[in-house]
Amino acid sequence: MVARFDVLVIGSGSAGTAAALGCRKAGRSVAVAESRELGGTCVLRGCDPKKVLVEAARASDALRRYEKLGVFRDTPPLDWAALMRFKRTFTQPAPAQRQRTYDDAGIATLHGTVSFTGERTLEIDGRAVEAENVVIATGAKTMHVAAGDDALLTSEDFLNLEALPASLVFVGGGYIAFEFAHIAARAGAKITILNADPHALSGFDSALADRLCAFSQSLGMTIELDTRVQRVQRDAQGVTVYAKKGGEDVSYRAAAGVLAAGRVPDLDALALGRAGVTVGKHGISVNERLQSTTNPHVYAAGDCADGGGKPLTPVAGTQGAIVAHNLTNDDKRHFDPSGLASIVYTIPALATVGLGESLARERKIDLAVHEGETGGWYSTRSTASDTGYYRIFTDRASGGIVGGSIFGVHAEEQINVLALAIRAKVPASVLLDTLFAYPTGSSDMEFLIGD
Length: 451
Prior knowledge:
Layout: E1 3-10, H1 14-25, E2 30-34, H2 40-45, H3 47-68, H4 80-91, H5 94-105, E3 108-111, E4 114-116, E5 121-124, E6 127-136, E7 140-142, H6 155-158, E8 167-171, H7 175-186, E9 190-194, H8 206-218, E10 222-224, E11 227-235, E12 238-245, E13 248-254, E14 256-259, E15 263-265, E16 279-280, E17 283-285, E18 298-300, E19 305-306, H9 313-328, E20 341-344, E21 349-354, H10 357-362, E22 367-373, H11 378-381, E23 389-395, E24 401-408, H12 411-423, H13 428-433, H14 445-448
Parallel strand pairs: 1-2, 1-6, 2-3, 6-18, 8-9, 8-14, 9-10, 17-19
Antiparallel strand pairs: 4-5, 5-6, 7-15, 11-12, 12-13, 16-17, 20-21, 21-24, 22-23, 23-24
Helix pairs in contact: 1-9, 3-4, 3-7
């Protein structure tokens, strides 16, 4: 017996859910296939639970900053077990909530491992399924980089730790490593970060990334750059990570390690060759409509697709909605990544948006560079902090915001103002003339982009 649908969506995360709901709203018969719990990475084992931990670590850090000023005394340590219990109040209900969303919309749910048997035919744990169109939204998985690195915790493992190890070594120097390191350090763990490249946090302004590294080291973290991990060995007492640094053999010891060297599209189980679907370096090869370049019945969205943008939840959700539109409407849409903001949720955070300086200059934009320290500003000092820096670029010819990066206590709020300005093509002069509520991070715009 073959189950037939107009649209089969593989994956129940942000991209898959947006695609499924959009197609169902347009009157199509839709099924979502999922091999794990419903909800996807962001809700269950990514952004949402991570930010719960970040906010608790941020609160603990704030109390300690004020304690140094004598405002508070005897600040209690962060209770990791209690924090995990609080985190589960967000993650445990999520699969049932996602199931209700599908049920209410009239979307069928198919649980099991999915693999293609032809261009539009698939098997889900042996059950035959046929669809007029297939949307692949399987997300990404941990990338392995060295022999024995399966002895390390994944990001999902870290988010489910019942007890925090006394020391942690992170393999990788991207945003996941730095975010988890800042959480764990505020909870009392000794931290080492190993990064293969000469600079950490690839994709972020190197000058501000270097400042974040220096600040992290001031907290007691060890950050080893240009250090390429060769192998990992685990024993009853912990892990040893063996690496090459400057041609020399080095090793690092910790109670546990976290593999945070990056993620790759999660496509191995799908048998895409049977469907004639081509995969490139960054995921499924798609055209500007997010349609497979080699199988017109297949679309892809989110982290598993080479569709432009960064592997972020807003990208996945937007791409899923675009796929639904393109499957159900004659006027086709494409993904526009302009004004996409990205944040490293360290404490304080590092945020970026738009073009970096080198790319902007390659495009022959006449840049005005606005940069400076914010540690002495009222908006920073009022939070008992003394750390911050910004680099923002405007176009001298058009007066528009080109891009920028902010490291500081109000980075999350400020970067979203700049993201809106870039996306909506709002000139810097309009931001300067806006009557922001004061005192807020946004009200600093006159200093961030003014001369």
